[in-house]
Write a structure and sequence with these properties.
This protein is an alpha/beta fold. It folds into two domains: 210 residues, 3-Layer(aba) Sandwich (Rossmann fold), CATH 3.40.50; 116 residues, Orthogonal Bundle (Arc Repressor Mutant, subunit A), CATH 1.10.10.60. A seven-stranded mixed β-sheet has the order 5-2-1-6-7-11-10, with helices on both faces. Strands 3-4 form a two-stranded antiparallel sheet. A hairpin with a 7-residue loop joins strand 10 and strand 11.
Length: 346
């Protein structure tokens, strides 16, 4: 633990880190205690957190976008943080970071063993998974990494709906979802280390409102095509064009020429979804696009994607998205109100 005046938070970064995450975290956390009173009374207060940027070797580098970063410390330095934030370390959803961050992972394990709270933003949780720190635990990251976690880190219970996964807090690990989830993580860290009042005041300064609805409304179904199983690939191609048909799973089974049990097993192995879950997810993705752009009634949208019963459509939609169809439309209409006038001028 830090023995200085203020709690020490270390932001771990690498060339794959987003500048918006690294410098956003730094600016907000470094302002705690100082900026709020300055905005109210014109007199800065005292900073209450010590914020340091760390990298494996401590040398200057450029992060994503060729933005320069000058770390304060290297992971080999004898820093004793109260908390660590593993910033996002971007990687393709097909590119597992095996063996890519050995020094960073060794340091994370060491400081965690010494009692530091270890947190991550977005793909930063991949480092924790690589280090075995998430084995047998629940964790989150950006929803697009769901398949990677299921295939390559099956010991981790991946919570793709969560913005902030706090279920492992008692063991000193907290993970946050997509890149903008650093807002939620920041509020959590300020509350934990500085108190609720500082968190509220900082949120007011930076207009941080959090993501109370979770990641699900933003998630998009990822559908990598299976290439090693020709029968399953053929069914994926077919259902993508025929998702609205009645009894879709039965039709895929018949098309494959397999018995139902074998088809289900091979489909799950190939896609990560049970067949009916895949169909439902596909239908909901189509419904979301209609709700975002079209003016049909909600019940009409349900029929178009294969649900004759409006109640069934609403139930399946809310279970998958976390919002009712009407609430989803309202949420994304706010974005369209900003985007459409700009698109018309282009």
């Amino acid at each position: 633990m830090s023995h200085g005046k203020n709690p020490l938070i270390v932001l771990l970064a690498a060339p794959e880190t987003s500048a918006s995450v690294l410098y956003g975290l730094y600016d907000v956390l470094a302002s705690v205690g100082a900026v709020y009173s300055d905005m109210l009374a014109g007199t800065p207060g005292n900073e209450v957190l010590d914020i340091k940027i760390a990298s494996a070797d401590g040398k200057p580098f450029h992060c994503l976008g060729n933005i320069p970063v000058e770390p304060h410390i290297a992971t080999d330095d004898e820093a004793s943080p109260d908390a660590v934030v593993v910033c996002d370390m971007y990687t393709s959803i097909y590119d597992v970071p095996k063996g890519r961050y050995p020094r960073e992972i060794a340091w994370l394990r060491k400081v965690h063993d010494k009692g530091a709270l270890v947190t991550s933003v977005c793909s930063g949780s991949l480092l924790l998974a690589e280090g075995g720190m998430l084995d047998g635990r629940e964790a989150t990251a950006h929803w697009a990494y769901r398949d990677m976690f299921q295939r390559h880190y099956p010991q981790v219970s991946f919570r793709n709906e969560s913005i902030l996964c706090l279920t492992e807090e008692a063991d000193g690990i907290v993970t946050a979802g997509g890149v903008s989830a650093w807002h939620d993580l920041t509020v959590y860290l300020i509350t934990k280390l500085c108190g609720y009042q500082h968190a509220i005041e900082t949120a007011k300064v930076f207009l941080i409102s959090g993501h109370s609805e979770g990641q699900s409304p933003y998630a998009v179904m990822t559908r990598p095509m299976e290439t090693s199983d020709a029968q399953i690939s053929d069914c994926q191609t077919w259902i993508a064009e025929n998702y609205e048909v009645a009894k879709p799973v039965e039709q895929m089974v018949a098309r494959s020429g397999l018995n139902a049990r074998t088809f289900s097993r091979r489909f799950k192995a190939a896609t990560g979804f049970a067949p009916i879950e895949y169909v439902q997810a596909l239908r909901i993705e189509e419904a979301k696009q209609m709700l975002e752009t079209d003016e049909q009634l909600v019940d009409e949208v349900g029929v178009l994607v294969g649900y004759e019963d409006p109640a069934s459509f609403r139930r399946v939609f809310k279970r998958g998205v976390g919002l009712s169809p009407a609430a989803y439309r309202k949420k994304f209409q706010r974005i369209s109100q900003i985007a459409k006038p700009m698109a018309a001028k282009a």
